[in-house]
Amino acid sequence: MSVDLTREAARTQGEPDEATLDTPSLPPLPADRFLEREVSWLRFNQRVLELAEDPDLPLLERARFLAIFASNLDEFFMVRVAGLKRRIATGLAVRAASGMHPREVLEAISTTAHDLVERHTSCFRDQVLPTLAKEGIEIVRWSDLDDEEREPLHSMFRERVFPVLTPLAVDPAHPFPYISGLSLNLAVVVRNPNTRQEHFARVKVPPLLPRFTQAAAQRFVPLEDLIAAHLPQLFPGMEVLQHHTFRVTRNEDLEVEEDEAENLLQALERELMRRRFGPPVRLEVEESIDPHVLDLIVRELGVSAEDVYSLPGPLDLTGLHGIADLDRPALKYPSFVPGTHRDLLEVEALEASVFSALRRGDVLLHHPYDSFATSVQAFIEHAAADPLVLAIKQTLYRTSGDSPIVDALIDAAEAGKQVLVLVEIKARFDEQANIKWARKLEQAGVHVVYGLVGLKTHCKLSLVVRQEGDRIRRYTHIGTGNYNPKTARIYEDLGLLTADRTVAEDVTNLFNSLSGYSLNTRYDRLLVAPESMRSGLIDRIAREIRSHEAGRPAYLRFKLNSLVDEAVIDALYRASQAGVPVDLWIRGICALRPGVPGLSETVRVRSILGRFLEHARVFVFGNEGRPEVLIGSADIMHRNLDRRVEALVSLSRPDQCKELIDTFDLAFDDGTSSWHGQPDGTWVRHCRDAEGKPLRDLQMHLINVKQRRARIARAS
User: Fold this and answer.
1) How many structural domains comprise the chain?
2) Pairing mode, if any, of strands 582-586 and 556-560?
3) Model's pTM, two decimal places?
4) Distance between CA 420 and CA 31 in Å, rounded?
5) pLDDT tens-digit profile of 410-435?
6) Of 100, 253, 516, 562, which is most buried by a Cβ count within 10 Å?
7) Which of 300, 312, 308, 309 lies closest to 201, judged by CA?
8) Are residue 380 and residue 474 in the same domain, yes or no?
9) Is 15 helix (H, G, I), strand (E, B) or coil?
10) 677 and 586, same structural domain?
11) Hey, which bits of 112-157 come out as E strands?
């Protein structure tokens, strides 16, 4: 059999081209082989909700998962739904790879999202809220408070809330006000006692004040209730007849025409200003809202009936993060402090530099189990302070507000080192922060570049050039996650620290492509998007097919956030049709249908969600018994493979390859708690054994393994 999978890489979206998929030895691929990506994303958020519904999880963690579900859905509407609506409005929408027309996709989204939002509300109201109350943590409405509890809130309102409120009237002289995206608002109806005329007004709930106001010890009331109780102070002399809470979600995705932008920084700043005025895509209202008031809001905002989500109050449960942050350790996951990687213990003890540790061999990091501060951060900080270091090159996609990484790069520049930082100022929802970092770095003398026109730079790279005697040695870090010390404590990611010359040469060439006019597209240990990643992965899948047909060991195991790209999915289908075992560990979207007879019988799809956000991307190829393992920044999506600069690096040490393969074995073990993907796109959770006992929590298991190894390493 000859399977020309590389030809399939050319088709990345739209209708499948059957001519490129047919092979003489394998049956044709069915037209309905792709699941709808938007619905698949909603199924991912459903899995988040199922964690909130799980009574075995610590209570405050359940509250946090409710908040995560809400914030996830906000971003989904701001970006995915908004983008779909924009394409339909401009006539640019085409039928999805799933075969669904864009309007059918919107209908499916609306149906699924409405069901999930009702389930989310029910979980909060019927499960988490009463259980919190049993633990002495109460979220109550204003009517539930007695006079003694209300008294300090009256003072608080006068001193902290009233001064920042701005009631906006709606009448012939005052048009309907602009409602900012994700803001919580009160729709107020007042009446003039002299003329008996009724008026509509809007009051914005201040977003910088706590979402839930403390009325007593661990007894909280929604901020909008506090404001509503004091509306007569905002409208003195008027009769307050009604008040209703509502919330608008707007299109907040960015569109910057880089080819036409002389200065990308300035163009992006202008676009950020325009983002505030994107069209509405969702309206959330309390179910008790007066129909006439709802009609007014719907008409003024121009939203359709299916865009309205009528819910029991309180709205905006993203505020539950504040409740989850309460100091109640018994109601949270057990405390966990990341440990220093065993190969870097000498560095932590200041007995050696990180560079001497890397000269002994590559270090494979697994965050947050391995400390980011004593590995990646220490690598950059040591480079900044080391007088032998001549240059540092770094990509920054997202980082924290008080980033020690940025501080170290500034220190290095001020010490006279050559420092190049590629800041991706188009990182979604971090654009403003990254613009600030870019300007701060430039002011310190850092060479700041913004990557390639038309491409986001998403790869996670750091390169250090050091003078060692009469030679130059280069050290690199390649990761799966951002250089962000805060998210490194809650995101599961991998990183490779190495002094390998081949990797250093590859990374140097990639930086030269990003900062200059290099046209190099050849790499030895890297796969780089958009040049070679899709074709490189498909070539390796084809190799596994050939190995399997020759009777040699062959298998495929991918760990991803999302699997969407049709060309790669078709290659995986072909591998399964040929009999190659395929394991897919997917956190979020999966457009592949597993377990379909004649198409994907050998494919298993698993999803693991929990305390940490599974974020690492890993690709394992059986390679005839000599496994090839790659890690890096790319998911298998069109944007990653076609519109972003991404990098995967192959691991060279067999023991490190085995470590990741062993983790796959655990993830797919029947004794590990996980969700199993089904052919129809639904997911079934397996979290208990036949006797009803909880299955292994993979993340807790890895915590225990890392802690046990750390104790052994420190004792040796």
Assistant:
1) 3
2) parallel
3) 0.91
4) 47
5) 999 999 999 999 887 654 555 566 67
6) 562
7) 300
8) yes
9) coil
10) yes
11) 138-139
